[in-house]
Design a protein that fits this description.
alpha+beta; Four Helix Bundle (Hemerythrin (Met), subunit A); Heat Shock Protein 90; 3 domains; five-stranded mixed β-sheet; two-stranded antiparallel ribbon; rod-shaped
């Protein structure tokens, strides 16, 4: 049975018991009210009879008209009370006793009336008066006897109602306590039983969820008993099944990715080896071509004529460009294969030293080159030298004729990283295409405008990343560019 149904059943049962007891309690309260009213009538009757008796005794002693009048008024009042009692009392035993009281009271009223009338005669002869006094005494003795009998019956009526009221009040109190105890017992039973069932169910859920959380995705929770906790268990089982399917898919994807990564790693190694071999093997014939072309130009230049010398110059420049490309390819392959050997490096001194290798001294003389205080780095010195060479060479190469040739090198320490930047005032670039700058063979300017292979910044990016850092650039067309890189501070 479901917990909600059990709660409803116990609630309805409790309400039914409380309702039944409440009806009984209501009946008891009704009886208490009726008995209380009857007792009030009996007490009022007893009080009126006692007052009449006192006034009759007073009349017997004093013979005053006032006392006689009060006795008659009390008798009338007692008659009214008896009439009300007759209309109110419902118990047959009470009615039987009440009829006896009415009969006794009627007899007493008749005798008392005769006594009151006889006691008022004062004009009789002395002998007659003497006989009258003896007669009054005998009559008054009869009245006292009837009073006594009436008192007994009225007292019996009053005590019976008083005892009945006590019994009803005791029953009422017991019923109130019983209702409270039943409600308390039902609440305790419900709370204890339901909490015990919930605790067992939640404990089962917790243990099952813990096993699933530790990787036992094939584990399934019990669905008995079929209640709300079983609904939760059913959802957890469904979740575990979905997780198992997802993990199988992920495991399959991981295996596929691992296999593809292994294949890519093999292909990259083969490609690197091929690129290195091709670049290395091309350098010797390229140098021979450039060397023989140089000899031919020097020794036979006049014989070749102007057109021949032009074509020979194209051969030499193309060979030199090819040699630079192969050299860059060798540097790129070297940067990708070599692990950095980190030592303390004076970056300011290395940048100043490298700047002198970027172009002929006559060209560099036209530049305002400034190196501010740079933080020392823990890095591979030869790799950092290559980084500075490529960045500074770009700054020199992209300087625009007719503008101020100023190159600034700056650095700082921020968030555990050494940050370095090279700023020029040259051609700059469109910031929208900044993502292409560090791609292999990617150029934002034509080769006829600025010479280059499109590999230099890729080498910078690869070296910086192998040091655990990053590289970025900011620029604007015609306003120069700033190339920055950051590497961990280490312990320089």
């Amino acid at each position: 049975m479901r917990i909600q149904s059990l709660l409803r059943l116990t609630a309805y049962t409790s309400l039914g018991l409380v309702a039944a007891l409440s009806l009984i309690l209501g009946w008891v309260f009704l009886k208490i009210g009726q008995t209380g009213a009857n007792l009030a009538i009996a007490e009022e009757l007893q009080t009126a009879i006692q007052e009449r008796k006192l006034m009759r005794n007073d009349f017997y002693v004093r013979r005053e008209d006032r006392s006689r009048m009060i006795v008659r008024q009390r008798s009338e009042h007692i008659t009214d009370i008896l009439d009300r009692a007759l209309a109110t009392f419902k118990n047959p035993a009470d009615l039987l006793l009440l009829s006896e009281i009415i009969r006794e009271n009627k007899s007493l009223v008749e005798l008392s009336g005769f006594f009151l009338e006889e006691a008022t005669r004062q004009d009789e002869p002395a002998a007659t008066m003497a006989r009258q006094a003896g007669y009054e005494k005998r009559m008054y003795s009869q009245i006292l006897v009837k009073d006594y009998l009436l008192d007994l019956d009225v007292g019996l009526l009053e005590s019976s109602h008083r005892n009945e009221l006590k019994v009803l009040e005791t029953s009422r109190n017991r019923l109130v306590i019983g209702v409270f105890l039943i409600i308390l017992l039902m609440v305790l039973v419900d709370v204890t039983w339901i909490s015990s069932r919930l605790a067992r169910g939640i404990g089962r859920l917790r243990q099952g969820a813990a096993r699933i959380g530790h990787g036992e995705l094939e584990h399934r929770l019990s669905l008995l008993p079929d209640d709300e906790i079983a609904d939760v268990a059913r959802e957890i089982n469904s979740m575990a099944a979905s997780l198992a399917e997802s993990f199988d898919s992920i495991r399959s994807l991981q295996e596929d990715v691992s296999r593809r990564n292994a294949e890519l790693e093999v292909a990259n190694r083969e490609l690197e080896a091929f690129s290195y071999s091709v670049a290395h093997d091309l350098r010797a014939p390229l140098r021979s071509i450039d060397g023989f072309a140089s000899i031919l130009q020097e020794d036979y230049g006049e014989a070749l004529g102007e057109e021949g010398r032009r074509l020979l110059g194209i051969i030499r420049s193309s060979g030199q460009a090819m040699d630079i490309l192969t050299q860059d390819l060798l540097e790129l392959t070297k940067a990708g294969k070599t692990d950095p050997v980190k030592i303390p490096v004076d970056m300011g001194a290395l940048a100043t030293e490298t700047f002198g290798l970027c172009a002929d001294p006559s060209v560099l003389a036209g530049f305002d080159f400034t190196v501010r205080e740079l933080p020392a780095a823990m890095a591979d010195r030869s790799m950092m030298r290559q980084v500075w060479l490529n960045l500074l060479s770009n700054a020199v190469k992209y300087s625009v004729p007719g503008k101020v040739h100023r190159i600034e090198v700056d650095g700082l320490v921020k968030d555990g990283m050494n940050v370095y930047s090279v700023r020029d005032h040259g051609a700059g670039f469109d910031q929208r295409y900044v993502g292409k700058l560090f791609g292999l063979f990617q150029r934002l300017h034509g080769s006829e405008e600025f010479q280059g292979t499109g590999i230099g910044l890729s080498i910078v990016k690869m070296i910086i990343e192998r040091h655990g850092g990053k590289v970025w650039a900011e620029g604007s067309v015609g306003k120069g560019a700033t190339f920055s890189f950051a590497i961990p501070t280490g312990e320089a």
